[in-house]
Design brief:
four-stranded antiparallel beta sheet, alpha+beta, 5 helices
Length: about 260
């Protein structure tokens, strides 16, 4: 009987020890997670990282809404294709004649479209940050916003100028400029679109197979619709980003 009691007592002790060990591990994990959460929050809403992250996301969101459809949010001339409004880059509404370029300075137009679209979004980045930091008891003042967008091979660069003054616990920090680079092939895809428009305007045809041989970084597909409109789908193989454009050149009327 005594041996049985000793055995039960030992088991009880092991159960208690096990519970203490599990509880200790839990406390350590919670403490570690709290530290990670605090660090994440601090880093997320620190001025420079937050603005750069938010601006970068604004660019990507806008490009996702424009580049797949020809580069414009609300194109003036477009062709519906698979429930998408695809911008006419080169178009002739008549028959037999080559198309006329509708966007002779396409790269600049896309750059301006991007700039105009993201301006309120970037302003919103600063205002959201201001609200969050003020909720934490910090004082923050914002100057006027000025920025520019530059296109380049496989990247887009934002030069954002906005004075920011942050006061917290007797410490004052100031920021004036934020440089943001977004990796995206919008410039490269648009250059291919310009070449397609140029060839369609001259020859009513674009030799996309030969172009892909010379430029293996792109995959190009062509779909011809019933009204002689051609939908070109240009894909950057490395990033899998896609740009679609429409052309209508040297159309042959039905029955001819």
């Amino acid at each position: 009987m005594a041996a049985k009691m000793r055995k039960n007592g030992q088991m009880a002790i092991w159960v208690i020890v096990s519970l203490i060990i599990v509880a200790s591990i839990g406390i350590l994990l919670l403490a570690g997670n709290k530290k990670k959460i605090d660090t994440f929050v601090q880093e997320t809403y620190d001025v420079e990282p937050y603005i750069e992250r938010c601006a970068r996301q604004s660019v990507r969101t806008t490009l996702a809404q424009t580049i797949p459809y020809g580069g414009f949010l609300k194109p003036k001339s477009y062709r519906q294709y698979n429930s998408m409004n695809i911008t006419y880059i080169c178009e002739n509404i008549g028959n037999f004649e080559p198309c006329i370029s509708q966007h002779p300075v396409l790269l600049e137009e896309i750059r301006q479209e991007l700039r105009q679209t993201i301006e309120p979004l970037i302003d919103g980045c600063f205002l959201d940050m201001k609200d969050v930091l003020e909720e934490r008891g910090m004082e923050i003042s914002l100057g006027s916003l000025n920025f520019d967008v530059a296109f380049g091979p496989r990247q887009i660069h934002l030069d954002i100028e906005r004075p920011v003054t942050l006061k917290d616990r007797g410490t004052t920090r100031t920021f004036d400029r934020f440089d943001v680079t977004v990796v995206h092939p919008a410039y490269d895809l648009a250059n291919v679109a310009v070449e397609i428009s140029s060839q369609e305007a001259k020859y009513c045809y674009f030799e996309y197979v030969g172009y892909m041989i010379l430029h293996p970084e792109f995959d190009i597909k062509k779909t011809t619709l019933s009204d002689s409109t051609k939908i070109y789908t240009i894909k950057d193989i490395k990033t899998e980003e896609i740009m679609r454009i429409a052309t209508r050149s040297c159309a042959i009327p039905p029955g001819v």
